[in-house]
Amino acid sequence: MNVIEVNKLTKTYNDSEVLVHAVQGIDLEIKEGEFTAIVGPSGCGKTTFLNMLGGLDQPSAGTIRIGDTMVNDLKPTELIDFRLHNIGFVFQAYNLIPVLTAKENVEFIMQLQGKSKAERDKRAIGLLTEVGLGDRIDSRPSRLSGGQQQRVAVARALASKPKFVLADEPTANLDSKSTETLLDIMEQLNKEENITFIFSTHDTRVVNKARRVIKLEDGKIISDERKAD
Q: What is the pLDDT of residue 118?
């Protein structure tokens, strides 16, 4: 089953009065349970493409279908609600709320969804335990290492039970050990819970873990390879 269907997706914008073609007519399908890396040189359109998939940036042309929903047709308030219930995000800079504990950061999305306190507590503790932070649930981000903060971010991304998780350069600020731990956790979640992950990355360690690698250049797909299981 396709989680995402993209047709002729295009993004252009003006940069100092120069028209930039960031993404040029991409067609793509991503199936449930895929573990996909989007790669390419800086400026090739990776982050712009991910931002459009996540509804953080509007395409100039083309369509994005997520499940049964044509995302382009959603009004701004509908898009916010759709993101909240369908898409998980893991950012390069973690984006945790500094005054909240690890558990409270994970709970925050569920609070926005209107989940009960009992449900929030149970899922947040369960997810943090799953990513190896069951003993750090009451720690604020400043008391956690970069790798631990990124694991909290993964738990937060999964808290809403999304259709898929978008991870934009999630290992860029991590050392080798933290990167390997994080990738092992995400790979395990992908295989055991069939969670769909889509990465944009320069990191060869992410590429080596991915089972599908899509290469962009000048805003276009130049290769799309699936690895044998």
A: 95
